[in-house]
């Protein structure tokens, strides 16, 4: 994969993340000047024909990984809290049942 195509993929991905449809004009504007228009068009066409091969920038991939790890950690913490809450509720239900049994035993006498 050549450097220009890689750059076009990154620009297109950035544009999509911003909610924009990557067009040749937007890509050209982001790529800056000094790029051979024929090579730019060729790289853009290559991306247009295979947009799923676009490479996510490293910082975006790292941010996505961090978000997933944080979500999993939060889910683990939430699960631990739910287990603790359930244990407390079960203990209270056991106490209530014991009290009811005591009352029923006293009433039966």
Order of helices and strands: HHHH
Name the poorly predicted regions: none
Arithmetic mean pLDDT? 84
Strand element count: 0
How many helices does DSSP assign? 4
Shape: rod-shaped
| Largest sheet descriptor | none
What class do helices, strands and sheet pairing give?
Answer: mainly alpha
In which range does the helix fraction lie?
A: over 70%
Q: Provide the domain count.
A: 2
Percent of residues in beta strands: under 5%
N-to-C CA distance: 89 Å
In angstroms, what is the radius of gyration? 30 Å
Labels describing this entry:
80% helix; 109 residues; rod-shaped; mainly alpha; 2 domains
Could you walk me through the main structural features you see in this protein, from its secondary elements to its overall organization?
This protein has 109 residues and is mostly helical. The chain has two domains: 1-55; 57-109. The protein is 80% helix and 0% strand. Helix 1 packs across helix 2. The longest helix is centred in the C-terminal third of the chain and has 51 residues, at 58-108. The radius of gyration is 30 Å and the shape is rod-shaped. The N and C termini lie far apart (89 Å). The mean pLDDT is 84.
